[in-house]
Specification:
This protein is α+β, with helices and mostly antiparallel strands. Helices cover 51% and strands 19% of the residues. The protein has a domain at 26-82: Orthogonal Bundle (434 Repressor (Amino-terminal Domain)). Helix 1 packs across helix 4 (68-82).
Length: 83
């Protein structure tokens, strides 16, 4: 992705990349992939280090603003799975 950095904007995690610094919303991508995942929440928890109970709460909407670290772990997992 070239030159990139991660930032927070209104409690959402963004990646700015490329010479034009396009915004890419990691939070929305993670939420979409959680809804359409090909792996169980238990396996996802084991592979990402995010507690199972936290994944369930995020998926159910009980946690509306997960931590940046949690979203980053999930994004990294999904990014590796697609690559």
């Amino acid at each position: 992705m070239g030159n990139q950095y991660v930032g927070i904007d209104n409690t959402r995690l963004w990646v700015y990349c490329g010479p034009y610094m396009d915004k890419f919303n990691i939070y929305n991508t993670v939420m979409e992939r959680l809804r359409n995942r090909n792996v169980t929440q238990r396996v996802l928890a084991q592979r990402t280090g995010v507690p199972f109970s936290t994944l369930v709460k995020i998926t159910q909407g009980s946690i509306k603003h997960p931590s940046v670290h949690t979203i980053q772990r999930l994004y990294d997992f999904f990014d590796r799975e697609v690559a």
